[in-house]
Design brief:
Length: about 600
Amino acid sequence: KNQSPTKNIESRNCAAHRTAAAAAGVRRVQYHQENVMERAGIEIMNKDFRKSTVYQIYPKSFCDTNKDGIGDLRGVIEKLDYIKELGTDYIWLTPFFVSPQNDNGYDVEDYYNIDPSYGTMEDVEELIAEAGKRDIGLMFDMVFNHVSTRHEWFRKAMDGAPYYKDFFIFRKGKGDGVPPTNWESKFGGNAWEYVEKFDEYYLHLFDVTQADLNWENENLRKEIQKILKFWMEKGVRGFRFDVINLISKACYEDDETGDGRKYYTDGPKIHQYLKEMHDATFGTDPGIVTVGEMSSTTMENCFKYAGRDTGELSMVFSFHHLKVDFMGNEKWVLVPADFQKLKDIIFDWQTKMAEHNAWNAVFWCNHDQPRVVSRFGDEGKYWKESAKMLGTIIHCLRGTPYVYQGEEIGMTNTDFTDISQFKDVESLNHYQILQHKGLSASDALRIIQIHSRDNGRTPMQWDDSKYAGFAAEDSAEPWIAVNGNHTKINAADQLRDEDSIFHYYQKLIALRKELDIIAYGSIEPLAEKDPCVFAYRRMYEGHELIVAANFYGRDYTWKNAPDVDGYTRVIGNYKDAAAAENGVMGLRPYEAAVWYK
Ligand code: TEU
Ligand code: CA
């Protein structure tokens, strides 16, 4: 059997957790399905997701209130006023359900209970109610492609119960220690794990402790619906579905030309499963917003996933625009970002999704991505300008913008210099794999520093204190190190500074509410082949909006620019407007400006 480094790292994590969980004493209770909002007397207002903005919270790294060095739900409650100040309509909270945390909660052990490291069900209820009071809806993150191997279903499957064994994907190997197929796990190594007692393998597209679920099984699908209804009845206003386009597997065959993804991505029954889930659960409440995370998807499928009348989801995350610094699908390489490709992909998705009445989630950052200011902007001299420029591009597009915690203050990639500082299972596995391929430890580390998901997972920088205000100074060491630049980049400073990135994001978010054109207008790419400019035009009911951005750190003259005479600059990252005359626009380093007529 191909012994990938996944297995070794996993067994270390798992052992550590078993003791922690035992010590914490996971409390399991059967909870009432009582709507928290009703109980608190909060009237639920349906929102138009096209006019909304979502703030994403990775609770583990957001705010720690009990000094254990791990962010928690009470920390989110404490910061609700900050989020209200920023102005977003929803909070997407990544998973906080009971989990061994091998993949920071994306390995769910129990969807009905809260992991003690994050808090209790009472905390969740209070969070829903307190957010509701501020007219902020909560979106929960549902991981339905797989569950933790510690989930009750998997344990029963391992005990040999046929009913539960069929919740998973068990297959015979090809003999002699050869797994059923040559598919690769996204976290490295083969995607099948051998179980001696059955002489069979189970499929895990992610970590070995994340067993893929068998959606062919109707009983499993009913269980999924029960989970969604449980949380809807509690007052949750939306859902984000983790890698949801991987749930329908076409067949189990070797992929001679790849890693297997063509056999499980956008599979044959995916639309049927989504429609069924929609009709049975969130489709009954028009106020619920949904977003599907679509791994390596095609646009044709997204027309259906996120179509206005297709009865599947409100919108989709696609990632093609964030692979412009990969080599094809290979992430673990160092190549400069391809600006032309970035524009081509964004414009292609913008225009074609519009033609098909389908809706995008628009974003640069999340908990799996490096920080955008480090990636496409400038951490140095033009840090502030470039962060604002990148925000402008996203927030004026056709789609629902997502702001990932810390993006609104221009947080950067980690400053880690040693592999021991990295925590993510994917990074640690690929650090080994790169060295097995012959890279030196320092070259492997360089690649991890650039691409690691931990870049987005260092603690939120609230202030300039020892642990950046993420945790009290006398608390346990944070689970992942704070970036040393928190003395310069932190929320407290930016709340005081009118010219900060925070206040610029606040303005962008407000602009979408003020100007219907941003939510409802058509989209037309401009300067498509220009080597420096990112620009587009929106149109709606006789109004026009022109967004122009210089993507680089040098002065640039944009010839053939649209004439903005008679337009008002509604937002820009320099004090005065750019010099524009007769279709020639002078853009300063990383300058962004938005004109409206
Ligand atoms: O991510 C899906 C996913 O495809 C990424 O993990 C991706 O494989 C990786 O970034 C590529 O380098 C979702 C969650 O967002 C992620 O945090 C989880 O680890 C993953 O699913 C498994 O649940
Ligand atoms: Ca804590």
